[in-house]
Amino acid sequence: MITCVAIDDEPEALEIIKMHVSKITELDLLGCFFDPETAIDFIEQGSVDLIFLDINLPGFSGIDFLKRLKNQPHVIFTTAYSEYAVESYEFEAVDYLLKPFEFDRFLLAFNKVKKVIALGGSETQDAKKFFFIKDGSKTVRIQFEDILFIQGYGNYLSLTTKKGKNTVRMTFNQLMNQLPPQSFMRVHNSYVVSLQNIHKIEHNYIFFHNQKIPIGAGYKKDFMRKINI
Question: Domain HTH LytTR-type, which positions (predicted)?
């Protein structure tokens, strides 16, 4: 059973979440909150696996709310404003629901949480932040947050990070099994990107400041859905 709470200043939004949760037997709603301060106290006292969090809360934003938490559960942001989508991934949000959302979209977000918990539920929080690759004769530790994008060519992958480039003999499937699925996505036959490090999206290209990569036609629809655009 996955436990959750919902935080929103709109009663109608909370009622919709209650209705959707009632249809999922694996999900247990522990409480709904209008007041962020009360929600913080509740989350810190108990074991909450998942937060449905409105990004526009009275007094401060949902992102400010997460900064206040000592131990952050998994998060699904809910909001009427799509411009926060990319920023939400900086906080490893599993998904981003754009209001109004139907049950099918809600269920898809929940299934992503299940997958994340299944992949990382037995790992410590620190272990989820990096992995090791073999680059020639070197073994290199790669921080997930440092990765900008990964390019594939032949039997090799080139990882472009904030610190430089590394090459590893590995397939995309092998790599994706090591990356947190909420933060990385394949957007082209030859590219995987870090959602949290995207600078902008323009004319079928994703920009990482002075670097850009193409969005493949077969990947564009899923990519735009992922960031709710």
Answer: 131-229
